[in-house]
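WARN retry 2 of 3 for item q-0093 after timeout on previous attempt; input resubmitted unchanged.
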Amino acid sequence: MAKKEQWKDWFVLSGKERNGVIVLIVLLLTSVGLRFWIQHRGIEFGKTIAPPILQYAVIPAADTIPNERSEYPKKKSFKSYPPRKEYEPWPDYTKREPPPVSLPKEIQPIDINTADSTQLLALPGIGPYFAGKIIGLRNKLGGFHHADQIREVWKLAPETADRIIPLLAINDEALHRIDLNSASWEELSMHPYLKAYQAKAIVSYREKHGPFADPGQVSACLVLDSLTIQKIQPYFAASKVEQ
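OK item q-0093 returned
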């Protein structure tokens, strides 16, 4: 008997389930009645739920849209433009005579080891900036022993160096030479052509083998390459040390 009454459980609803069914029926009837009312008033359902911005969109009429390509304005033909203006031919400057060139006055050779900044300004292409750079390099080196050392001036153009080298004179007596037998490694390392470890090697060699008898003896230091020796040797002197 109990098995026969199990089918009744499918139609027994709780209080919450009955309220849900009632709400669902009310919503269904409301949506059906609202749609019937809108259609009865003659309003399309799609327009009522469209975004507000679409209500103000302007849609052109079908008869104003061109359907044929012939309705568009035609492009202008190239024949309608004015003809290109013919200009006069470019003048041939090669046939003209070059203007006379005023050659600079002859400049007397300038001793680069004793000249001041005013005298250096007489050199072609040398202004106050490079005159100061030349004097600064001269002070660091202890003087120039060759005119080609002017190429080591910072930012001096090679063309300018080529012009002024023939106008330079070198006074070897103005060179400041370093005494290899009395100078410390700090004094040696101050020279632009020597590095600190090379200066220490020279002092170590002197302490181990005794004073230098000749500046050329510095080539015995293995840390000095041939190029460094060639550049630095004119700045060395070896004083006689009494035994």
